[in-house]
Amino acid sequence: MEYHNDINILIDKYLQGLTSLKEELEIKEYFASNNNIPKKHLAVKMMFDFYKSEQQAVSKVQMEDIVGNSSTKRRTLIVSVLSIAASILLILSIALFQQQDKFEEEQIYAYINGKAVTDKEIAIIETKKALLTISNNLNEGTKNLTYLQKINKAQEIKISN
Question: pTM, whole model, 2 decimals?
C-alpha cells in the first residue's frame, strides 16, 4: 500500500515536471513491471508505453542514419514528425481519460423527498414500498365495490322475476 502512495506522489511530481531522472526511471519501471495498474494511472501508463515505443523507433531511425549515412536534414525531419505525433497522442489520451472520468460520476436512480438516491438497492426498496402503498390504497378503495356487486345482483334477480 505504501508503494502505491509513493507512486502516486511520483506521478504527481512527474506531471508537474518536478521529478529527477532517477524518479522517472522508478515510474517507468513501475509501469513496465506491474500489470495491475489503477484506472486513474492508465493515461500515464499509456504515455510511458508510447515513450518506450517512440524511443525504440527513434533509435532504429538513428541506427539507419549511422549505417546508411543519411543526411542530417532527413533525420531531423523524422525526429520532428515523431515528436509531433507523440505530442498529439499524449494530448488526445489525456483528454480521453478526463472525459471518461466525467461519465463515471454517480448515477441517480430516484428522488425521495427531494433527495437524490444513488444507491440502486435503496431505490428498489423505496420503489417497492411506494408500489405496496398504492396497492393497499387501491384494495381499500375496492372493498366498497363488493357491497355494490351484491346490490347489483339483487336488482338483477328482482328484474328477472
Answer: 0.36
